[in-house]
Design goal:
Layout (H helix, E strand, L loop, with lengths): L21 H26 L3 H29 L11 H31 L6 H23 L3 H4 L9 H30 L4 H28 L6 H11 L6 E11 L2 E9 L6 H5 L8 E9 L3
Parallel strand pairs: 2-3
Antiparallel strand pairs: 1-2
């Protein structure tokens, strides 16, 4: 196939990253809710000399900071979508935001274990009524945030591939789920301690929560690091590509590399052996759009 000029070979590498993702607006809304609750709790804690209120307010502040990282990732990816310095666009900024959020989740879990362990060794006096009220209010606020971030779009509901998730949104979602879980465990522990005198339930629930948070963090770290390190796509996707390329019965895929460059976006380098006169463009036409292959390079060789 002959080309009259280079423009026919050139194409955009934005891959839709210049458009606002649904998770961006949701994340900013949740940041606003979290920051408002944070200010209320810290102010009330100072005014009423309540360490429970102040501690929960600072906990909210840490998650507001983590959510801000997720929001920054959305904005940065969108504003730099046309930046030629990014070879395959800014899709991986999404995974980087998710990875950063997962690291912070792990840090928060460690802090929860440290604080809970110290309270098991040296119990502290708990102002039950205020603490329970704070936990209930926190649960309501976090429940609203979970709902906002958990609403799925049509394309997300039909998406079952590991690397197709909006990892940045997942990170933000796990942060608010973490807050909600903390509130639930706190309510259970405080009620048990208040009415049955089992004060040790409060720090114990903190450790249980930290274990669950750690599991979520590890799962998100695995999925996002796979993208950041250009890990091969799933076997099923590789087989679908091979099936289409080799559909004529005369072509053979000699080498195949498929990796994620963003949410729902893959790049691929394929080496094909064939005795037929088939161009790389004709092979590309065999690949269906639903595979999410936005950047494909195909090398056609004849068997020796």
């Amino acid at each position: 196939m002959q080309y009259d000029n280079l423009e026919e070979l050139q194409h955009s590498h934005t891959f839709g990253q210049d458009k606002k993702r649904p998770g961006e607006l949701r994340t900013f809304i949740v940041i606003g809710i979290t920051a408002t609750m944070m200010v209320v709790e810290i102010t009330a804690g100072i005014l009423f000399s309540s360490m429970a209120l102040l501690a929960d307010g600072l906990h909210m502040a840490s998650h507001a900071a983590a959510l801000s990282i997720n929001a920054f990732a959305y904005v940065y990816a969108r504003r730099n979508a046309h930046n030629p310095a990014f070879s395959f666009g800014t899709g991986k900024v999404n995974a980087l935001g998710g990875f950063s959020g997962a690291v912070l989740l792990a840090v928060f879990a460690l802090l929860m274990v440290w604080e809970s362990s110290s309270r098991l060794i040296e119990p502290v006096d708990i102002i039950f009524n205020q603490a329970i009220l704070v936990a209930v209010i926190g649960l309501i606020v976090n429940g609203i945030s979970v709902f906002i971030l958990g609403v799925k779009d049509d394309h997300q509901e039909h998406d079952d591939h590991d690397h197709h998730h909006d990892h940045n949104l997942k990170s933000a979602y796990l942060h608010v789920v973490t807050d909600a879980l903390t509130s639930v465990l706190a309510i259970v522990a405080l009620l048990t301690a208040k009415y049955f005198g089992l004060v040790w339930m409060d720090p114990l629930m903190g450790i249980v929560g930290a274990i669950l948070i750690t599991r979520w963090s590890i799962g998100l770290l695995k999925s996002t690091s796979a993208i950041l390190l250009d890990k091969q796509a799933s076997k099923s996707l590789q087989e679908k590509i091979k099936l289409q390329i080799e559909s004529d019965g005369e072509s053979q895929v000699a080498d195949l590399h498929v990796w994620s460059i963003g949410p729902n976006i893959h790049a691929s380098i394929i080496s094909v052996l064939t005795n037929q006169e088939i161009t790389s463009e004709e092979y590309k036409d065999r690949l269906p759009t639903e595979l999410g292959l936005e950047h494909v390079s195909i090398e056609v060789n004849k068997p020796k």
